[in-house]
Specification:
CATH architecture: Alpha-Beta Complex
Number of strands: 10
CATH topology: Spore Coat Polysaccharide Biosynthesis Protein SpsA, Chain A
Oligomer: single chain
Shape: globular
Length: 234
């Protein structure tokens, strides 16, 4: 079984989109788990209507860990609530390729649903992830992992403020588990953070956080001002 775990906080606009995309898949051996960080809108009502299991979450790392604790599947797929489009047969193809390559943890292509410049820059990023997969793993937005590996590496580090997904897959590889970048049709994710915070500011934040993680290690302070509730007005 595949356990799909989605951290949420006030996601009434986007959650039904990703859940609807999952329901349309030609793949039925899965369960849905929503780890909610205290939503004040209709997020929980939507999750219940889609038959999701619901647990108390927090920041994404905590939400993913809490969701994994109740997961029944041998594979865990961590996704974001604002993944707005999944390719046809995405889940089945992803699991098949994961097993065929005998991977322990994996990432796959993500593209924003926004402007051409965003898609262009993300294609470059996806290419870099592909060519560095054997020595410097990356993971943005979504991760597929064996549950036993998640447990053995003690899950996500909940003290990390940003780039906890990159640190997670690198720690898994450091422990000796096989990481891979699965070449598959991209998942589309919302470009709302770019629209709200500005493209230059957002991309610069991501680049600086990446260098910080590589050179100095885990980011456990709010240096980059990460905000989980991407719908909130500042």
């Amino acid at each position: 079984m595949l356990s799909i775990i989605i951290p949420t906080l006030n996601e009434e606009k986007y959650l039904p989109l990703v859940l609807g995309e999952i329901k349309k898949q030609n793949f039925s051996d899965y369960e849905l788990i929503v780890a909610d960080a205290g939503s004040k809108d209709k997020t929980l009502e939507i999750a219940k209507n889609f038959g999701c299991k619901i647990v108390k979450g927090g920041l994404p790392a905590k939400g993913r860990n809490e969701g994994a604790k109740i997961a029944k599947g041998e594979l865990l797929l961590f996704m974001d609530a604002d993944n707005v489009y999944l390719p046809e047969n995405f889940l089945g193809n992803l699991v098949q390729k994961f097993k065929k390559r005998n991977l322990g943890v994996a990432a796959f292509p993500i593209l924003p649903d926004g402007k051409k410049i965003d898609k262009f820059l993300y294609r470059i990023y996806n290419w870099l992830v592909k060519i560095t997969q054997n020595f410097l793993p990356h993971a943005t937005n979504s991760i597929l992992v064996k549950k036993e590996i998640h447990q053995k590496i003690s899950g996500f580090d909940e003290e990390i403020k940003i780039a906890e997904d990159h640190e997670y897959v690198r720690r898994a590889k450091k422990y000796g588990y096989k990481y891979g970048f699965i070449e598959i049709e991209p998942v589309l994710t919302s470009s709302r953070r770019f629209e709200k915070d500005g493209r230059l500011k957002t991309y610069l934040k991501y680049i600086l956080a990446g260098f910080h993680l590589f050179i100095f290690g885990k980011i456990k302070t709010d240096l980059y001002h990460y905000q989980f509730d991407k719908n909130k007005k500042i």
